[in-house]
Amino acid sequence: MSETPEVRPPVVTPARVVIGLCLVAPFVAMLWVGSYAKTDPAFIGIPFFYWYQMLWVLISTALTMLAYQLWQRDQRTRKGTDGGAAK
């Protein structure tokens, strides 16, 4: 009757928190319209309102790629600690 309890890795890890922040940041930046609803400073003649949004397209791409890489690493680590058990 001395069975040892099964040890599972924690569900919330620092890597998963960073993944969540990477995916939420573009939404927050774009939904907070008051922060970029202006024309100055212009960049090569393009009002701030437009180039700020286009910059976030590139930032969102980079953050999504980072989140994906972190997720892949997290899954590899979990498979190593689970002993190969599929989840």
From TrEMBL:
UniProt KW Transmembrane keyword: yes
Record-annotated membrane-spanning stretches: 17-37, 49-71
Domain of life: Bacteria
Keyword Plastid: no
Keyword annotations: Membrane, Transmembrane, Transmembrane helix
Protein name per its UniProtKB record: DUF3311 domain-containing protein
